[in-house]
Design goal:
The structure is a single chain. By secondary structure, this protein is mainly alpha-helical. 68% of the residues lie in helices and 4% in strands. The chain has 5 helices and 2 strands; from the N terminus they run ββααααα. The protein has helices spanning 20-48, 53-64, 66-73, 76-113, 134-146, and strands at 3-5, 8-10.
Amino acid sequence: GLRARGGALVGAASPPPPSAAMSHEHQVYIEQKASPIVDELVTACVLEKPDPLVPFMVRWLAKNHPSAQDYLDTMSVGQAERLRQEVASMQQELAEMKERLERGKLGDAAVQDGAEDGAGGRPVASAPALEVSEEDIESYTADEFDDE
C-alpha cells in the first residue's frame, strides 16, 4: 500500500530521472534563449526597483522585445497599456502647448509694455487684437466647402 511520509506518498511511482540528453537540451535552451532576456530584465529591475514589480516587467518586455509587444497588443491588458501611454503622451503635448501659449501671452504683454519705445520716443502703433468666434470659423469653413 501507499503510506504518507513527509507529505509524499511512499510507494507511488516517481517520474524517471531526466536523461543526460534532455538535461543538456534544457541547459542549451536556458543559455541561448532564456538567460539573455532574463539577465537584462533582472538588471532593469535592480536598477529601477519598481513597485509593483510585475507590471514593470511586462512593460519592459514589451518595450525591449518586439515579439512580446506584438503578443501583448493582442490582449486587453496590452491595449489598455498602449492607451495609457497614448493618454500620457497627449497630456505631455497639452502641457507643452499651454506653456507655449503662456509664453506667447507674456511676450504680447512685453510688446505692449514697450509700445512707447519707437524712434525718437514716439509711441509705436499696435494693431488691435483680432477676435474670431467659433461661429465665424464654422461659417467660413462652410462657405469654403460650399463653393467646391
